[in-house]
Amino acid sequence: MAINKNHEFEDLDNIKCSIVEKNISADRVQFLKDLLMYNKYEVVVAASPAPKAAPAPAPIPAIAVEGETDATTPSTTTPNPTPEPIAPSTFTVGVTDLRFNPTNAVFGRSLHTPDGHVVTLAYWNQEDSESDDTVPYFDHK
């Protein structure tokens, strides 16, 4: 069990893993997989379970007013005309090294890009295409 929310563990494909990110797109999976494999981590990717659908609201029964017949009361058992939308395909990424914590890895500057730079927060979040590690994250304005 995790001590805090930033260091989660789960079984992905029957392998105990430290969770890197959950509910991410296929493009993000490929980015993280390439980066983590370059840093010599064994990466496990599993499809995220579909979110639980909210139960359909119960129909409100019609209240009969004196003098009305049953023919004028509206039917309360109409089927749901819109089908439930298909959930988007999302994934969960984990690594087999249970000591790995993504927050500590980024801010502790222990991950490197293939071109030799230290992974910054902007690079990890894919906001920058290149890692500019010359200015620390706390000095960015």
Task: Please specify the SSE layout and strand pairing.
Elements: E1 9-12, E2 15-24, H1 26-38, E3 43-47, E4 91-95, H2 102-107, H3 121-124
Antiparallel strand pairs: 1-2, 2-4, 3-4
Question: Can you tell me about this structure?
Answer:
The chain is α+β, with helices and mostly antiparallel strands. It has three helices and four strands, in the order ββαββαα. Strands 1-2-4-3 form a four-stranded antiparallel sheet, with helices on one face. The relative contact order is 0.21. The model has no long low-confidence stretch (mean pLDDT 80).
Brief synopsis:
The chain has 141 residues and is of the alpha+beta class. It has helices spanning 26-38, 102-107, 121-124; strands spanning 9-12, 15-24, 43-47, 91-95.
Sketch the topology as an H/E string, one letter per element: EEHEEHH
Question: Roughly what fraction of the amino acids lie in strands?
Answer: 15-25%
Let me know the average pLDDT: 80
Q: Helix count?
A: 3
Distance between the termini: 37 Å
Helical percentage: 10-25%
